[in-house]
Amino acid sequence: xxxxxxxxxxxxxxxxxxxxxxxxxxxxxxxxxxxxxxxxxxxxxxxxxxxxxxxxxxxxxxxxxxxxxxxxxxxxxxxxxxxxxxxxxxxxxxxxxxxxxxxxxxxxxxxxxxxxxxxxxxxxxxxxxxxxxxxxxxxxxxxxxxxxxxxxxxxxxxxxxxxxxxxxxxxxxxxxxxxxxxxxxxxxxxxxxxxxxxxxxxx
Length: 203
Fold this sequence. Notes:
Layout: E1 3-7, E2 13-17, E3 25-26, E4 31-35, H1 38-80, H2 86-124, E5 128-130, E6 135-140, E7 147-148, E8 161-165, H3 177-180, E9 190-191, E10 201-202
Antiparallel strand pairs: 1-8, 2-4, 2-7, 3-6, 4-5, 6-8, 9-10
């Protein structure tokens, strides 16, 4: 064929809807199959809950950091008046620095979770697979209820179906060696295919 598209899954999961069959004509943009979105929807909800928890933790961490700073400043003032030993001030300073580190770590955790949430939401957009071109489903390797898997760098994903544009065909034919000398570029040809015995193709 002049053009064909091998269709694979962009996200793994069970195929829950397969409205096309082999031999069906499909239009560009038409739904080819749908993968169960439930696991990804659950993941999105879990990450959202983790983000809410992390935001609550950052409020606590920032409050503890402020309190540790107040204590550190108080101990420094007492040290200047020779009321406390220097090791007391160092402990207060360490507690303050730990508070800063915990606050920063919680902020980084929120950033990491938000990135995961973005990826999970993007995966949700991949559960509906549509045709890139108009054509005929010439190969179908998946059925409803079966699992589709995404390929990796070293292991490409399984071709679940092939959509081919059959408006133009390329035929490889054998020509007897005694007739080859009579051929020329652009010469008209008539092709008869066993699969279509009543149809003559002109080329």
